[in-house]
What does this fold into?
Amino acid sequence: MSDVLTISDTLTVEGGRPLSGEITVRGAKNLVSKAMVAALLGETPSELLNVPDIRDVEVVSGLLSIHGVGVEHDHEAGILRLDPSNVESAHVADIDAHAGSSRIPILFCGPLLHRLGEAFIPDLGGCRIGDRPIDYHLNILREFGAIVDKQPSGIALSAPRGLKGTVIDLPYPSVGATEQTLLTAVRAEGRTELRGAATEPEIMDLIAVLQKMGAIISVDTDRTIRIDGVDRLVGFRHRSLADRIEAASWASAALATGGDILVKGATQPEMMTFLNTFRKVGGAFDVLDDGIRFWHQGGDLTPIVLETGVHPGFMTDWQQPLVVALTQAEGLSIVHETVYENRFGFTEALRGMGANIQVYRDCLGGSSCRFGQRNFFHSAVISGRTPLTAADIEVPDLRGGFSHLIAALAADGTSNVRGIQLINRGYEHFMDKLEALGAAATLKA
Ligand code: EPU
It folds into this structure.
């Protein structure tokens, strides 16, 4: 990887220059990592294409390796070859060491229970954006017949009588819980009905992967997914859909800095909701054969009222980068976050840079959500336009961190952004991309 960064990395950014030029996005982090887990279920090797060079792929590769899966990664071509012929149990200490800050290990449970009859997961990390519990996951695994044993070092699972199809009603259309069900149901005995499922494009692409492997899965318009378990699955060859979060992040960077960015590899269908919002704010875009060009048209940006939600709503991961652009709109914008209870922590640093953003416990903007009567600051009012000034900032999490980077690029003066290595989890070669877009950003060791 060209962006191997160490823990103390700080990026010095001279802001105030429009980002202009061309970059490429490859496969979606949130599909690639799950398709890699799906490879565990096959009897023959799998090949995944359009794989980005990001830390999360390294983490899952490491986890697969310690479970006996052969992993070959051609970084430049973006091809991963995964051979699950010799799946075996891993040592607890190794799992702990490899899992790092990832939440992916929870998705290993179903496939490992099918392959080995047992699984172990350490305490889970992931970005600090709310509690991010795993109760749905554990309840689902229990429904299939797994025995869940919570131990001081993690959770041990076993399935002495195998896993059986079941009916699952999700309390919320959780992406991870839907994936957990799919990855477990495809090889469970009999039929599984999942009600209230998430239907994000990354989930539909995972279903496509599983279908290539031999699974039988149908999706209804009412969020019901039915899976008929099969006895065996084979390897797949699949090209990941594009990373619509990365694409939207660069689009917001173009808007916030008054720039013009061609995001090659970005695709329209998965980004429709983002594109509508981008246009309402006053951004311009052009859908081309090989990507989407995003630019600031000059003049004032328009404030908006926005609510994040599950697909086909406005993704929670699109919210943070766009909020930076909204600080440059003339007037009041309202953003209601309904997916995570605690995803406005990043606004504190923006306030320090001159943004006028207030966060509220109430559901602002029209509808109420499950966080409404509780103590979570999950609505934000952004009053613009405010010039941003340089500051020293610490990256809080992946998407919040990218937003800080955008703010530093838009701000007057020189900012120091600390903990930049977190951004590597989901944005490949972002230093190279910043350079290609004309940013004045250098790494301090
Ligand atoms: N939830 C529970 N219990 C559970 C699981 C989820 O209460 O057992 C709650 C969460 O706390 C949250 C809501 O359900 O409030 C939705 O969480 P979901 O399960 O949908 O999220 P996830 O699967 O953990 C994935 C992405 C996130 C993305 C969300 C929503 C991956 C690896 N992560 O997380 O992406 O924000 O779906 O679309 O696919 C990112 O890429 O930076 C990122 C955080």
